[in-house]
Amino acid sequence: MGTLTIGIPSTLPWLALLIFGATPMQGQNMPRVRQTIRELTAPALHGRGYVHQGDQQAARYLRTRFQALGLQPLAPSYTQPFTLAVNTFPGRLYLQCGNTRFQPGVDFIAEPTSGGGTLTQVPMPLDTLIFFDEAVQQRFLAQSLRGKVIVLSQQDLIRLVKQPLLAQHLEQASARITLVSGKLTASIAQEQASQIRLQVLASKWPSKQTAVKIKVDATLTSSYNTQNLIGYVRGRAQPDSFLVVTAHYDHLGQMGRHTYFPGANDNASGTAMLLELAAYYAQPTHQPAYSIVFIAFGAEEAGLLGSYYFTEHPLFPLARIRFLVNLDLLGTGEEGITVVNGRLLEPAFQRLIQLNESNHFVPQVAARGRAANSDHFPFSERGVPAFFLYTRGGITAYHDVYDRAETLPLTAFTGVFHLLTSFLATLGG
Question: What are the pLDDT digits (tens) for 396-416?
C-alpha cells in the first residue's frame, strides 16, 4: 500500500518531500509515479468517492503534494468548494440465491440509482413475450408487481427503453435484478429510485430459481461538499496568459462495507501525470513563459460536475487560456494515445503528430472528434482550445474492482510525459 501520507500538516511540506522521495527540483520520476498511484488507490481513500469522505482524503493528499511542489494557490488552500447530490451504498450490500452467495463488485453491483431495502422472495423471470404478444403484455400490465423481485436480461432492459408503459409498470417491483453477460461496470448517480436495482453476472446466476435474500443500504445525500484543487506556476514572460493541465482525482468510491473501486487507470494515472508535470514546471529552469495552471477536478464521475462548476465560476478569465490539456486514463499505451478534439483543432494536432514522429514518444497518436467524455468538454463548449488525451491497449479494467495499481502497466507514461512537455513548449510552456 505504500507510505500513507494523508493528513500531513500543511506546515510541514518538507516532510511530504522526504516521504515522496521528491523535491520541487525533480521532474518526471517513475518510482514516484508508482508511489502516487499506490497512495491514491489505497483502501484508506475508499475509492476517492463519497463514502467515508474518500474524496476529502484524496483532496488532503493532493493539497500536500501541491504545497510540497511550491505551487501557488489560486484559491485558499488550493480549494474551490462546490456541492453535489450523490447516491451511495455505505452499509449492507448482500445478495444470496439459494446456497449461492454473491460477492459485491465481483459477482454483482448495485446500479447507481438503486434504492435500499431488505427482502426475501422467489424471483420472477421477465416473460419476454411481453415485447411481442399483446395478450401477454396486457396480462403483465394487469399484474401487481409490488413486493416482487423481477429478473431480466440486459438486452430486455434495453428493449424496455422503447416500451415506456412496460418500463413504468416494472418500476412497481420491489427489486430488479439485471443479468449481465459481459463485465460489471459501476457508475454514480445523483438520484435514487424507490426500487432496489442490482446487476449480476449472468454466468453466476443459478438456473434453478429459489428464494433470493437481498439487503441494500442506499443513502442519497442532496448536498454533499466536495472540491476542485487548483495550483499554478507563474509565467516568466506573460503571467496573465495561461496554459492549463487538468485531471480528475475522484472515482466511484465504496460499494458496501468491504468493496471499493481503486481507480488506478481512471484516474490515479492522470492525476499522477498532472503531479509529474507540476514537478517539472516548478523547477526554475523549466519556468514557462505563460502561467501554467494545474486543476484536479472533483466529481467527474458524477457527470463532469467539477469542471462544469469551474467554467461557471472561473478563478481567472477563460478567454486567457491559450490551451488546455486534460489527462484521463493514462495507465496503458501499448497502442499509443487518442486525442479527443484532434479532428477539431487540426493545427495543434498536427504539431503533436510531428513531435511524435520526430521523437517516437508513443507508438501512435490518433485523433477523435468532439466528445463529452471527460473534463475538457465544459471548456471546449465555452470556446477554450482543449485536448483530452488517453492511452490505448493493455489492460481493459474500467469502472470495476480490477482497476488496481499493481496491474497498471504504465507502458506509455514516460513517452506521454515527454510528448506533453514538448507540445506545451511550442505553446509557451
Answer: 999 999 999 999 999 999 999
Of 161, 160, 154, 168, the C-alpha closest to 199 is 154
Cβ-proximal residues to 216 (8 Å cutoff; 6+ apart), any chain: 89, 92, 93, 94, 110, 114, 115, 116, 117, 118, 196, 198
Structure-block grid coordinates of residue 385: 482550445
pLDDT of residue 57: 98
Under 8 Å between Cβ of 83 and 225 = yes
Cell of 262: 481503486
Closest CA to 189 of 156, 166, 163, 222: 222
Q: Residue 427 in contact with residue 244, Cβ under 8 Å?
A: no
117-121: strand order across its sheet: 100-101, 93-97, 212-216, 117-121
Q: Which residues, 6+ apart, have CB-to-CB distance to 182 below 8 Å?
A: 154
d(C-alpha 4, C-alpha 42), whole Å: 8
Residue type at position 186? A
What's the mean per-residue pLDDT of the chain?
A: 93
Q: How far apart are CA 286 and CA 293, in angstroms?
A: 14
Is the bond preceding residue 267 a cis peptide, omega within 30 degrees? yes
Q: What is the pTM of this model?
A: 0.92
Euclidean distance between CA atoms 100 and 212, whole angstroms: 9
- DSSP-assigned states of every residue in 94-136: EEEETTEEPPBTTTEEE-TT---EEEEE--EE--GGGGT-HHH
Contacts of 96 (CB under 8 A, 6+ apart): 102, 212, 213
Nearest-angstrom CA–CA distance, 29 and 406: 17
Give the length of the chain.
Answer: 429
